[in-house]
Amino acid sequence: MDTTQRLAVAQRWNQSRIRNLLARSFGPLRIARRDRRIARWRAAGWLGQCVGAVTALSSGCMSDEQTVTVTVVSADDVLTHMDAISHLYQAAFSAPPFVWPEGEKERQRAMLQRLAGRPTFGAALAFAGTELIGFVYGDTLTVGTNWWEGFTTPVGPEVMRERLGRTFAVIDLAVREDWRRRGVGRRLMDTLLDGRPEERATLAVQPQSTGSHAFYAAVGGWEVVGRQHVPDMGFTADEFDIYVKDLRAAQP
Q: Is the pTM of the predicted complex or chain greater than 0.85?
């Protein structure tokens, strides 16, 4: 078998493998989301080109030992990997341009343990072999949430109106520095949100983090609805730009 044939076989194998990995749930909406995601990965060249590897790289080839696995995990799995998640969180957010207040590492661990105990908690982890290289987690907003408080300019009442099960809040997403700009962050977000039953998702970004803003612009579907000034809420920073994404909308 020549090189061209080997690459063709590998690509067909990778496409089939990824479909199987993504087929976690049933129902027309989730299947449609899955198929749109596969189409985006194919268009971006992220369906593996290496024999025996399923990768998220847009260029180059990786060995089997560097194969990236991204999957939705249980709360118990998150707690099992708590130390690795905490270490990656600190590495990603403790340096400029992010605000890193005293005691932030302990605050994040306590918050994640609390969130993991909720029935609406959701998370996805990314591994290169056995090493954790990325994570994303969040929870469904409650009706009495303070998530929509503190906007510096008026925001429409429909945006701020919360009802049971309407909104999933993405609390934190991080990718190890040497794995960034390889599609891992997008895969984490897609993998988590494609399986959620909520109508929409929301997240908060520190305004000065231009890299984070560029990431969500590139991912697509996220809209900034306003800026919050919340110095007394006990959050990491005093200001956040709030994003919203309609999970029911068709993706290009």
A: no
